[in-house]
Amino acid sequence: MGVVNGVTRPVADGARLPFACVDDADGGRHDTVVKARAIRCSLSRVCGVCGDALTRPIAFVGSAEEADATAFAFPPCHLACAEDAVRDLGPRGAVLGQREAPGEWVVLTTAGFDLVRPTRRGGPVSFRPNSVLGRQNVS
Questions:
Q1: Per-residue CA distances from 44 to 40, 47, 94, 115, 135 (Å)
Q2: In the chain, what are the domain boundaries?
Q3: Disulfide check for 19: which of 1, 51, 52, 112 has CB 3.0–4.6 Å away?
């Protein structure tokens, strides 16, 4: 297991879990974002992949549909972490909060974002970049 920012990140299916996918039992799944971790990423401004403090530009990674809607399921990341996560985890299919493998991965950069809380109890949170600086398709 690797240690980042004092946090041990377990391995699942042969790959290290992103910070936002680690549950309270130190397990998790690559396709599931843990709601408490997602909120922590937003409020504490930490990276959803490595768990370290965010720096600008802030990156969001997701499907082309998420990028078009500027609403992401996976928390904010460092740009390098987002690119590495897509390169390392993307070929596995359903990862980074995606239930199914996206047809195309997109990394969107921004200077800031908003946390969108669920409208019903138990619903997922999402993240909305508030000013898009750049967009790149990553294969």
A1: 6, 9, 26, 12, 24
A2: 2-138
A3: 51
**41, 60 Cβ separation under 8 angstroms:** no
pTM of the model: 0.89
Per-residue pLDDT of the chain (139 residues), as tens digits, is 334 444 567 888 888 899 999 998 888 999 999 999 999 999 999 999 999 999 999 999 999 999 999 999 999 999 999 999 998 888 887 789 888 888 889 999 999 999 999 888 888 899 999 999 999 998 6
Q: Which residues contact 107 (CB under 8 A, 6 or more apart)?
A: 59, 60, 61, 79, 82, 83, 86, 135, 136, 138
CA–CA gap between residue 126 and residue 114 (Å, rounded): 9
Q: What's the chain's length in residues? A: 139
Interatomic CA distance for residues 82 and 94, integer angstroms:
15
